[in-house]
Amino acid sequence: MSSTNPPRLGWFGLGSMGLAMACNLQEQLTKQNLPALHFANRSLSKGDTLKELGGIPCQDISELVQACDVIFISVTNDEVLTSVINQFTSTNSLGGKILVDTTTVHPNTTASLATKLASHNCSFIAAPVFGPPLTARAGQLLIAVAGPPQVIEIITPYLQGVIARGVIRVGEDPSKALLLKSTSNFIGAGLMYLLSEAHVLAEKAGLPASVLESLIEANFGAYAANTSKRLTSGSYMPAAGQAPNSALELAIKDVGIGLGIANEQGVRLEVGELSMGAMEEARAFGEEKGRKLDSHSVFGVVRKKAGLRFENEAVKKRDGLTEHDEGGET
Ligand SMILES: *[C@@H]1O[C@H](CO)[C@@H](O)[C@H](O)[C@H]1NC(C)=O
Ligand SMILES: *[C@@H]1O[C@H](CO)[C@@H](O)[C@H](O)[C@H]1NC(C)=O
Ligand SMILES: *[C@@H]1O[C@H](CO)[C@@H](O)[C@H](O)[C@H]1NC(C)=O
Ligand SMILES: *[C@@H]1O[C@H](CO)[C@@H](O)[C@H](O)[C@H]1NC(C)=O
Q1: Which of 17, 130, 213, 262 could tie 269 with a disulfide, CB 3.0–4.6 Å?
Q2: Model's pTM, two decimal places?
Q3: Class of the 9-172 domain?
Q4: In 3D, which of 244, 275, 246 has the Cα closest to residue 258?
Q5: The domain 180-319 is classified under which CATH number: 1.10.1040.10, 3.40.50.300, 3.40.50.1010, 3.40.640.10?
Q6: Annotated catalytic residue within 46, 51, 176, 181
Q7: What is the mean pLDDT of each run of 10 residues along the chain (330 residues)?
């Protein structure tokens, strides 16, 4: 590996997850007096936060590759990732460099990109992350890494305690990290559905949501409590014009990957299918209302199935809705 010591770091992809992680990384580099993070994006908006923190913008991927030894990538989906990696390989200057991809994609996409990058003498680490953008900015994500162990050693100091609160080592096969991510998405989506049902039952039967929520926190832990709060706080249905914490569209993509893998393996994920059906219904509801919904909006669908309104008390209060408004109980 030709990387300098310390390696010069770069970042490609400044969506809500990418920007949050890149900012944490840049802050750490500043703290340690290390060379600043170079970055690029599909669309570079001026004066962005990362630049203010000391990051150095590059005009394109070729400039980024010239300036860096290790480049992190965070984009939205398989199609974008494949196109971005093609732009990296077409620079023909990846020899000895390290690419670390944090995007959630199908394991097969990762496998074929790893093979392609190997033919360019580029080391590849698959490093999908677990947690929403707010958790990302707090540096509290989990990250799973898979790839050559000596390369993982090089990048670990920039992960543990910087981008993530914990690093899970999956082994040498990059695609397995994505298999773990997909399995985790399946668990997360199922939990959303399960807690939605619990809250609907509580509401119908007259058990206060706050009491149920304290039980969830005390007995099932912080992750379940966070999911519960995304329901009860109303953030599952953001106010008009507000962006969701985690986009429903991305969750549909993510759970779809898991269902596809299960199908290939001849396994039925019935809970996954249930979640997917509810997310698709939520998407239709959002389109009808012209609202961007959060992945937790399955809560609204589960509510409607039980004869409740899609909007819970928190949403009604926030949006100033009364029972006479359109969309009331049916
Ligand atoms: C980076 O590019 C993406 C895709 O074009 C865009 O959605 C995002 O807002 C950009 N981020 C910044 C900080 O410019
Ligand atoms: C993924 O790869 C496996 C094994 O090579 C194959 O059976 C499967 O059809 C592929 N799936 C997709 C969606 O390409
Ligand atoms: C990769 O490395 C091998 C052996 O060092 C060399 O022969 C080959 O030309 C390199 N390929 C590229 C694309 O850099
Ligand atoms: C729960 O949410 C808090 C605040 O948003 C965050 O700091 C914490 O890391 C989250 N915990 C888990 C386990 O997701």
Answers
A1: 262
A2: 0.90
A3: alpha beta
A4: 275
A5: 1.10.1040.10
A6: 181
A7: 79 94 97 96 80 95 97 96 98 97 97 98 98 91 98 97 97 98 96 98 97 98 96 96 91 95 96 98 96 96 97 95 64
